[in-house]
Amino acid sequence: MMRAEAEITWEIEAFLVFEMGILFKQMGLILGLFESSWAGWTGSSISAVQSLQNIAFLFFFLGFW
Q: Where are its TM segments located (predicted)?
């Protein structure tokens, strides 16, 4: 019984991590609409969109792993 519960818990955690990846990806897409103005405001070489996409990739990878 404990093994089945542990497996279900692991699957739920993997699903939540995957969903967080989707959330970060959507945030990146939304910020992508404002990327040109965002780069103008911050003047940084790496945009917030690139940062969010990197985070999204990390969560997708952890969710599938």
A: 12-34
Please give the model's pTM, rounded to 2 decimal places: 0.46
Q: What is the pLDDT of residues 10-27, one digit of tens each?
A: 787 878 877 877 777 777
* DSSP notation for 10-62: HHHHHHHHHHHHHHHHHHHHHHHTTHHHHHHHH--SS-HHHHHHHHHHHHHHH
**d(C-alpha 25, C-alpha 46), whole Å:** 16
**Is 64 among the domain residues?**
no
The per-residue pLDDT for range 34-51, each reduced to its tens digit, is 665 555 555 555 666 677
